[in-house]
Structure formats: C-alpha cells, structure tokens
C-alpha cells in the first residue's frame, strides 16, 4: 500500500509509522505540524486565492457572471482537495504523538471543560444535594434568598429592556408574565425540586413568584414611564403601551412617580421658545387623549398638564392657533373634534351630579385629586373646552374667533359664507349663542351686502351703472358688532372718492336714515394696466392700486412726494412699492426715486395675464386690531369708570373696584369681563404712569 506524505514523497504505511516514531522521539510533532500548515497557507495565499478572484474580472452579463462563479468554485475545490491527504496524515501524526492543539478542543458550555471531561452532571448532583440539605435545615432562604433575588432582578430588568425598547404598538404584559413563569420560575423550581416536603416547595416558589411578579411590573412600568413622552406623541398608535401602563400602575405604587416624571418631561421638552405654539398644542391634545385612557378619572390629566396650560396662557398666539386649527380646511385633530364631540352641559357646582343609577360602580377619587373639582367635571370636559378654558373664561377665545372670522370675511372676494356659517353653528353648540351673537351679525352683514349690491346695481331707480365709470361694490359692516380695525390712512384718487359718494347717496336712498363710513385702505381693486407691449389684469389692495394710479399722472415719483400725496407713511409705502418692483412695473433709479417701466426687458411680450396677491409678504397681515390692542381699548373704557369711582369714594381696594366693574361689564349683548389679575396689572400700569397712587392696599387718584 502506497501512502502519499507531504506534497511529493511516497512511502509505505510501515515506513510512515517509523517516521512518526522518529518525529515523536525527537519531539518535533508541533514543529512538523506548524510547518505543514504554513506551507498550505502560503500555497493558498500566493496561488489559489489569486486564481479564484481572477475569474470575477470583466463580467459582461448575469449569465456570464454565473458561469465564471461556477468555474471559480470548481477550480478552488480541485486545488484544495489536493491538501486532504497531507491533512489526514497530520491528524494521524497528532494521534500518534498524543498532541491536540487548544483551539481544536471542544469545551462544555456549562463547566468549561472538554466534553470527555465534562463535570456538569457531578456539579448538578452536588448542587441539588446541597439545596436539599439547606431546605431540610430551613436555611436556604436565609442564606441564598437575597442573592437569588438579586440575580433574577437583574435578569428581569435586562429582559424588559431588550423586549420593550421603543416599541409601543403591541402589549407585552402577557408575554412577560409567560416568560417569568416558564424561564425564571422554571430555573427557580430546580433549586427547590429536591425538597422532601412538596408543600414547602410550592410555598417557597409561590412566595418568590409574587415578589418577582411585582418587580416585573415595577420594571416594566418604570420603562414605560421613561418612554412616556414618545408614547404620547405616537398616540393612538401607542394605545397598547398605554393600556399596559394603566394595568401596571394599578398593581404598583408608582402613580406619584409617573406624575412627577411626566410633568417634568413635558416642561423640559415642550415649554420653551424652541417649540412653536402649534407643536405645543399638538402635544397637549395628544397628552389629553393619552392620559384619559391611562387615568379615566381625569386626575392625572389635570395635574400633569397644569404647567402646559399655564405656559399656553402666556403665549400671545395660543388662541389664534387654536381657532385656526378648529376652522382649518385641512386635516386637523381639533377640527375633527369640533365636528365629532357632543356638548356636555356640566354643572360643576352641583354636589349631586354622580350617576345615581350606577352607584354600585362608584369609586372614590385618587388621593392626589383636587378636592375643589368634582369627578364628573374632570371626566366630561372635552378637548376644545379645555383649550378654551386655558384662559379661565370663554370670552378671550370667542374674541379671537371674531377677529379671525373678520380676517377671513374681509380677505374673501366672494360673498360665500356657507363654510363659516357651518363652523359658527358648531361653536354655538359649544359656547352658547349669546357669546357668538356678534359673529352671527357679521355673517349676516356679508349676506346683506351681497343683496344690497345686487339691488343697487339692478334697480334703475338708483342708476349706478350710468353714473359710475367702473362698477363699485361694498361690504357694509355693522360697526358696533365687528372687531376694531387698524387705524390706517389712505388718500384715494378723486375719481374713486366720487364713486364712493355716488354709492353712498344710493345707499342712503335705500336705507333712509343710515349712511356709510368708508374704510379706504380695505378691500380689493381689479385694475387693467395697459403698457406699450402688454396688458396686465390684477386684483390688488387699494393702496397698491393708488400707487400705480399716480404713476399714470407722473412717470417719476419720490417716496416723500408720493407719501405726502397718498397720506401713507413712507415705511409702509416702500413695502407696498416692492410689489410693483417684483412685477417689473416700477424701478428704483436712485435712492427713494422710482420710475414706471413701460417696456418689458429683453423685448419679451406678455399677453393679458392675471396675478393674485398671495406672493405678497404683507398679505398675511390682519386688517383688524390685535387682540391685545382690542383688550387695551376695552380696558380704557373701564378707566373712565375707575376714575369716576375714585373721584366719588376717594380710595378703594382692588376687590371693591373689581366688583363695581363686574356690575358694569355684565351689561350689553357682548359682556366684557376683567378678572382680578388682569385688573391688577392694568391698575399697576396706571400707577407707573403716575395716573394713580397705591398705598396700604388702596388705590386713589393723585392730587392735582
């Protein structure tokens, strides 16, 4: 029998063993083995590997690539198979010399010994015997209970983190309980399995189970509390996680920790200038929905969101953002809430408001509940009412809605109020008809304006078509029902004022004892501009139309001259002129000097085109006075009454002044309210302006 050793020498099997003996005698077994392995590695690295990778160069297509891959694998196999005889001889040499390398040893995963020398059975037998003796002596729990518990606690905490990290779309309580029963308690059972008294074993395991189950709930609850902000933001997709947390909070004593942690998280992540108001409102709405599922009593919601409500109260654009979201045409949670929810008339002052028919299901409020609020009032307040009550009353909310409604009605070219009327009816269900009476009148004004314009235009008795060179229509507003307008001046061209006068005379003929007070800076003007090479049709504001009108009379104007002519401040005028510059009709030839551009640059000709004003940066400016300005005007009305009271009574405390003003404010269809805090700020400002004196808790007028 011929056996091939190495790479080129052939010997008989008998000669081979003689060689083995010689190698073993000279103690060269390890050296020969390493030498052979190095030769094989060098052969593979220098010849076989380069030949293998050479097959993958210049692949033309998928089929060609597969054929090359098949060829490469075949050549690799044929090259490596030549090493097998030498590797077999190396294995026989190891056996003959009694040598086995460390890396080839297969170790037991339990005792870290070679498989042939595994001691696991012996260790388990010793372990079980030791436990049996400790159990019989009734000292196993005393000696090892804390260690076992600590080990299991660490394992539970690691498992909860691995399973539930940033995943809120499914419930984990059942799977965690099952894992505790099978894995953890299964291992624990082995500790007590050799107890001679099985009742003792069951008692010990059940005792451990209750402790471990409580620790499992606590660990899972703390994990979810740390993730609570993300759970709120992802609601309603995170409903399973919220339901898990609701169950666990009832089983643990972590309600106080949840309240403090979540309140702190909301303050840190939301209540700063880096988060805009719509985002704060979105998070607040999500928090309301989440916490209502988590705690149906409403106590947790009332406590946790208190800093958010206080912060929103101090942001000047909160009410406008809420009202805009409520009446926005696009998808909005608040708009859906307005349509979906029904009004719940809650008498918060009634002590007998609990459902008498369901008295058996009654439960007392949690210990952290506010005793000044009833359970039904916390549970029945819907999201919109909660947002409206951020300011303590509905008046501020309704006032802002009036301003926004006025903006929308005045910015619409058409007389279509169907959408606004629908929203108004929904809001009336929320806040009552009395609070929104002014808004009803505003919508009626738009409808009446359409009817009056049509009547004055079509009735030959008024003859507007013949008297006017261009059609003039008007929005006729009942001044006492609309919010205050911004005070702006504008001197219109004489021809426009003549048309206004013609329209006013026709209106006076129609209405008898009523007349019109025009707001020249409001409205829209449709103008046709004819230049040398083009004609442009535009719908612009009266100020823009007046600017381009004057360039019809003079081709060149300075800011100063045009400002004097139009009675418009120079800063405002420059902003308005920027629009005509963007349209290519005006050009600034020198500082504050503008000329009309008749020719299109480059000879480019434009036919008649229509351009809206949506690109104008000041288009978003409201023509109405701000809520702050309107409130200042209302408080100035109070000021005259305050002066009268202090003149007659010499000095008065804050509470007495507030009571007197409430009597005045309760009159009128749109009552004006002023809370104590607001009144204090107003009076303190008058003190700083030296219009009042304050001493000993009393306000008085300074002596003249």
Automatic annotation (TrEMBL):
<dbReference type="InterPro" id="IPR044554">
    <property type="entry name" value="ANAPC2"/>
</dbReference>
<dbReference type="GO" id="GO:0006511">
    <property type="term" value="P:ubiquitin-dependent protein catabolic process"/>
</dbReference>
<keyword id="KW-0131">Cell cycle</keyword>
<keyword id="KW-0833">Ubl conjugation pathway</keyword>
<dbReference type="Pfam" id="PF25773">
    <property type="entry name" value="TPR_ANAPC2"/>
</dbReference>
<keyword id="KW-0498">Mitosis</keyword>
<dbReference type="InterPro" id="IPR059120">
    <property type="entry name" value="Cullin-like_AB"/>
</dbReference>
<dbReference type="InterPro" id="IPR016158">
    <property type="entry name" value="Cullin_homology"/>
</dbReference>
<dbReference type="InterPro" id="IPR036390">
    <property type="entry name" value="WH_DNA-bd_sf"/>
</dbReference>
<dbReference type="InterPro" id="IPR036317">
    <property type="entry name" value="Cullin_homology_sf"/>
</dbReference>
<dbReference type="GO" id="GO:0070979">
    <property type="term" value="P:protein K11-linked ubiquitination"/>
</dbReference>
<protein>
    <recommendedName>
        <fullName>Anaphase-promoting complex subunit 2</fullName>
    </recommendedName>
</protein>
<dbReference type="GO" id="GO:0007091">
    <property type="term" value="P:metaphase/anaphase transition of mitotic cell cycle"/>
</dbReference>
<dbReference type="InterPro" id="IPR057975">
    <property type="entry name" value="TPR_ANAPC2"/>
</dbReference>
<feature type="domain" description="Cullin family profile">
    <location>
        <begin position="326"/>
        <end position="581"/>
    </location>
</feature>
<dbReference type="InterPro" id="IPR014786">
    <property type="entry name" value="ANAPC2_C"/>
</dbReference>
<dbReference type="Pfam" id="PF26557">
    <property type="entry name" value="Cullin_AB"/>
</dbReference>
<dbReference type="GO" id="GO:0005680">
    <property type="term" value="C:anaphase-promoting complex"/>
</dbReference>
<comment type="similarity">
    <text>Belongs to the cullin family.</text>
</comment>
<dbReference type="InterPro" id="IPR036388">
    <property type="entry name" value="WH-like_DNA-bd_sf"/>
</dbReference>
<keyword id="KW-0132">Cell division</keyword>
<dbReference type="GO" id="GO:0031625">
    <property type="term" value="F:ubiquitin protein ligase binding"/>
</dbReference>
<dbReference type="Pfam" id="PF08672">
    <property type="entry name" value="ANAPC2"/>
</dbReference>
<dbReference type="GO" id="GO:0051301">
    <property type="term" value="P:cell division"/>
</dbReference>
């Amino acid at each position: 029998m011929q056996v091939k050793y190495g790479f080129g020498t052939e010997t008989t099997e008998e000669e081979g063993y003689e060689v083995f003996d010689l190698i073993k005698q000279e103690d060269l077994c390890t050296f020969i083995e390493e030498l052979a392995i190095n030769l094989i590695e060098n052969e593979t690295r220098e010849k076989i590997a380069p030949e293998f990778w050479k097959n993958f160069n210049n692949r033309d297509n998928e089929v060609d690539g597969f054929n090359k891959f098949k060829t490469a694998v075949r050549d690799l196999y044929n090259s490596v198979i030549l090493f097998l005889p030498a590797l077999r001889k190396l294995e026989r040499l190891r056996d003959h010399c009694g040598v086995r390398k460390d890396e080839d040893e297969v170790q037991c995963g339990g005792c870290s010994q070679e498989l042939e020398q595994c001691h696991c059975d012996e260790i388990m037998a010793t372990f079980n015997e030791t436990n049996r003796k400790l159990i019989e002596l009734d000292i196993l729990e005393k000696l090892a209970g804390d260690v076992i518990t600590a080990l299991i606690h660490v394992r539970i905490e690691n498992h909860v983190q691995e399973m539930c990290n940033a995943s809120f779309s499914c419930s984990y309580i059942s799977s965690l309980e099952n894992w505790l029963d099978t894995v953890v308690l299964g291992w624990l059972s082995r500790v007590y399995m050799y107890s001679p008294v099985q009742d003792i074993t069951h008692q010990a395991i059940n005792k451990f189970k209750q402790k471990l189950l409580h620790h499992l709930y606590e660990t899972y609850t703390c994990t979810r509390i740390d993730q609570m902000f993300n759970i709120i933001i992802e609601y309603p997709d995170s409903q399973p996680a919220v339901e898990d947390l609701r169950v666990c909070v009832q089983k643990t004593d972590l309600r106080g920790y949840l309240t403090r942690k979540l309140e702190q998280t909301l303050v840190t992540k939301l209540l700063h200038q880096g988060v805009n108001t719509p985002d704060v409102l979105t998070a607040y709405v999500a928090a309301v929905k989440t916490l209502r599922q988590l705690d149906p009593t409403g106590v947790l919601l009332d406590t946790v969101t208190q800093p958010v409500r206080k912060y929103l109260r101090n942001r000047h654009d909160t009410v406008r953002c809420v009202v805009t979201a409520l009446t926005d045409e696009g998808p909005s949670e608040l708009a859906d809430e307005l349509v979906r929810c029904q009004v719940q008339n809650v008498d918060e002052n009634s002590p007998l408001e609990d459902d008498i028919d369901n008295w058996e299901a009654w439960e007392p409020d949690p210990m952290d509940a506010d005793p000044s609020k009833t359970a039904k009032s916390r549970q029945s307040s819907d999201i919109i009412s909660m947002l409206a009550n951020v300011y303590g009353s509905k008046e501020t909310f309704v006032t802002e809605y009036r301003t926004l409604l006025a903006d929308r009605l005045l910015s619409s070219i058409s007389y279509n109020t169907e959408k606004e009327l629908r929203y108004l009816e929904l809001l009336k269900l929320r806040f009552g008809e009395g609070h929104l009476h002014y808004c009803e009148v505003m919508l009626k004004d738009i409808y009446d304006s359409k009817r009056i314009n049509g009547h004055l235009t079509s009735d030959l008795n008024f003859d507007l078509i013949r008297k006017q060179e261009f059609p003039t229509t008007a929005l006729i507003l009942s001044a006492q029902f609309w919010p205050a307008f911004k005070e702006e001046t504008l001197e219109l061209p004489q021809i426009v004022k003549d048309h206004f006068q013609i329209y006013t005379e026709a209106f006076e003929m129609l209405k008898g004892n009523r007349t019109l007070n025009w707001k020249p800076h409001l409205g829209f003007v449709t103008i046709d501009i004819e230049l040398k090479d083009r004609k442009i049709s535009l719908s612009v504001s009266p100020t823009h139309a007046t600017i381009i009108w004057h360039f019809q009379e003079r081709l060149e104007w300075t800011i100063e001259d045009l400002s004097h002519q139009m009675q418009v401040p120079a800063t405002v005028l420059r902003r308005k002129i920027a629009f005509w510059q963007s349209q290519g009709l005006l050009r600034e030839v020198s500082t504050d000097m503008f000329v009309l551009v008749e020719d299109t640059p480059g000879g480019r000709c434009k036919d008649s085109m229509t351009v809206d004003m949506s690109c104008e940066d000041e288009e978003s400016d409201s023509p109405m006075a701000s809520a702050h300005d309107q409130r200042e005007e209302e408080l100035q009305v109070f000021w005259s009454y305050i002066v009268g009271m202090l003149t007659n009574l010499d000095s008065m405390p804050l509470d007495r002044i507030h009571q007197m003003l409430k009597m005045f404010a309760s009159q009128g269809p749109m009552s004006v309210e002023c809370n104590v805090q607001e009144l204090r700020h107003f009076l303190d400002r008058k003190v700083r302006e030296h219009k009042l004196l304050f001493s000993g808790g009393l306000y008085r007028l300074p002596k003249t």
